[in-house]
Amino acid sequence: MSDTTPKAPRRRRWLRAAALLGGLLCAYTALGFLAAPSLVRRVAVKQASAALHRPVEIDRVRINPLALSVTVEGLRVKHGDGAPFAAWDSLYVRLAPLRLLAGDVGFAEIRLVRPALHVGLDARGALTFEDLLAGDPAAAKAGAPAAPAKQGGLGLSIRRLAVEEARVVFRDATRKPAFETTLGPLTVRLDSFRTRGGGDSPYSFTGTTESGETFRWTGTVRSAPLRSSGTLAFERIQLPKYAPYIHDQAPVDLAEGVLDLETAYELAWGADARVLRTSGGKLTVERLALAPRGQADAPVRLPRVEVAGIQVDALAKQASVATVAVRGGAVRARLEQDGTLELARMAPPPSPASPEPWRWSVGALEVSGLAVDVEDRSTARPVRLPLTEVAVKLEGIRPGPETACPLAASLAWNGRGRLAVKGEVRPFGDRGTLALEAEALDLVPLAPYLDTSLVAQLTAGRAGAKATIGYDLAGQAPRWTFAGDVRLDALAVAEAGNEDLLRWRALEVTGIDAASTPPRAAVRRVRLLEPRVKAYVWEDGATSVARALRPASAPAAPAPAGPAWRTSIGSVEVAGGRLALVDRSVTPAAVVNLTGGQATVTRLSSDPTVRSSVDVRLQVEGASPVRVTGTLNPLQKEAYTELVVASEGVDLSPLGPYAGKFLGYGLQKGKLDLDLKYTVVNRALTSTNVVRVNQLTLGDKTESPDATKVPVRLALALLQDREGVILLDVPVEGNLDDPEFRLGKVIWRTILNVLVKVATSPFTALASLVGGDQADLSLVEFTPGTAEPLPAAKERIALLARSLGQRPTLGLELEGSADAAQDGAALRRAALERALRRARAETLRTAPASLDEVTLGAEERVRLVKAAYHAAFPAAPPAQKGEAAPAPTPQEMEERLAAAAQVPEDAYRALAAERAQRAREALIAAGLDQARLFLAQGGERARKEGGARVYFSVR
């Protein structure tokens, strides 16, 4: 007993202590679970309402004294006007008391579920919770100094932080219209966060908006010193929603656009070092559509814009981008009627210069697959030019006037041509050098620009070039250089409603070397291939050239005086030229054709010491040669000119209408030889004009009021020798600056006083000479509407040639005939055929060189016939309801169109002339000398009998 007696009081003390501790634990537990939640809820509501100056509601508070955790459920905070401010479903906080041993206020877990925050800016620009940031007014009034921060105080430690399904509603009333967005649900994860010591803490933020936008923010953070690095990403950002934020910066409406952005970042903020930079960023914008403010139609639509390699150092104010790429898209570049550019209406106003500007660079700007629709509404007729497959690459972009950037650009021009540019430019400077290559650029879309100076219209034409262009905009006047080759192919100019006035196959200008300082322009060679010119003189005396040119509304202002240009052209060449002159100021109209034109002019120069040479060769009506040689230099105002014009055997019958008007008699035949010499020195002209006329035969008296009063027939009898030749020598002198001096007029007045009539011989039956007694050799017949002789005509021409071979002194007159009775139907059908081919040619992507190259399929022909028929004969309403005439067949349509086609009188005369020409060519081929063959007009037999024929007369 003695051994155990001392232990009993000790045991009883331990039991009492345990009982007391248990009672305290029970009381603590009961208080924590039962009494404390209600008390904490009431105190929290009261204190929070007072601190926030807003009503605060809490549904429930739960406390677990054993886990050292508190849960606050159903918190709601409202603004004074009853609008929601903040709320959450539940907030769970569990303490980690052992962290006090390490000097930290510790939390084992903080979990916030479905918090919601409504914030923003009011119309004045103040935060809706700005009163919470102002601090305690009483404390501010008392001016109590803030307690100094204690060194080595408690830190903060959070083992696990989670924010689940958070939402933030933001409204900015300063924008017009007001901007509002909802961010959420937002999820935040943060593990092992400490403000003192230890390593970096990983974190993760993810969230979405009501528009389906998402963002991710992951990385590590450390607070002492503040340091963080990680990745920030935004996806499916709806750009139109944020348009209010550029409302004051640029007059642009963001019609569409979705943005993705991802970048790595690094942040360090301490006493020793401060860093704030991003790296490896990439940005993508899809379906971007931009329009001037208030305009529904967006002129800029880009399906994809990619920006890669974004680097930003915010503290150093440096930024760089590796590439900016625009993939596809469409841009409308429209110049309005008032001269403003639609795209310029979206340009931001100039911003004031920053005292410390950012340094930035872009490695490469790339554009591919872009379509640019160029439209100019400032002209009377709008200009529309589609540019497709636009590709641009500009490298090494950075600010600075000396920054040289390689440039490569190309595009497709109006679906046909190609344009490419390469070189080095200074985007922020004033110099550059570019290599340009252009091929088959369709010029027709640019034709409206010619409307101010041309009544005629450009109907075809393609441009090409290969050149190097340099420019320098420094100094008072811009300077430029141009070196290379230029060409214009298949150009055609037509007067409205008429045939082409001008057409050529190619114009080549090679070896161009031009510059503005000093002003010079040199060309190695100019070559014009197969030009076709059709010139008219109309009834009122106006020429097609005058009608094609629009009269100037006001005289042009004189150009400012400057250094004289030095110009030179190595050679100018014309090959295969043709000129058709139709003069309707006389009746009937005169038609003269010059063919086989070949010209060469060498050493053209503005230097007065340089002499040029000219050599021009052509044929009149396809047979008679004309040659011009000598010296001619239009680049010199006071140039020395010496020309010799020589022709042989020029047919005068096409000039018959002039004889009828000025001589008073028609002209049946005649040939002309010219030997003309002209010399111009200091604008003074001296010339000799030797004219030889052979076998000139006049026709009937015309009673023309403009005819000379000279007795023409008597003059012919006196001047004509026994061979039927008249020789004239007409010297002419004058000054080219005299407005009354006209060389042609002076010569013509002289010739009008010398008239020639050739003795004629009666026509004899030539068939008997070659055994063709039964053959009528006085005519050959042609297929109606064409210049194609009938099969029997070939035998007649052969017989006629053999018979004339036995009469070498005889000449043969050929007079073509065409009339409506025999040729009208065929000519009308030919006119319809040309109209159908012309309609087909207008639908072709490449304009044909002539309508003869256009072919019509059966289905295409039926379609074109129907279109022409309905245009010419609009359907009339039925006479009575329910009645309708049966629709004509395509064949009937074509026949009616052909019957209604109009054939001008010129067509008959031209056909008659062509038949005579074909007959003459056949006789020449049969061995006759062309000097013995004469084209005639106005013969009595042809006038009486007419028909699709060529009549022969022997003289």
Automatic annotation (TrEMBL):
A GO CC annotation given for this chain: plasma membrane
PROSITE patterns: TAT
Pfam families referenced in this protein's UniProt entry, alphabetically: DUF748
Highest taxon listed in the record's lineage: Bacteria
Biological processes annotated in GO: regulation of protein targeting to membrane
PANTHER family the record matches: DUF748 DOMAIN-CONTAINING PROTEIN
Record protein name field: DUF748 domain-containing protein
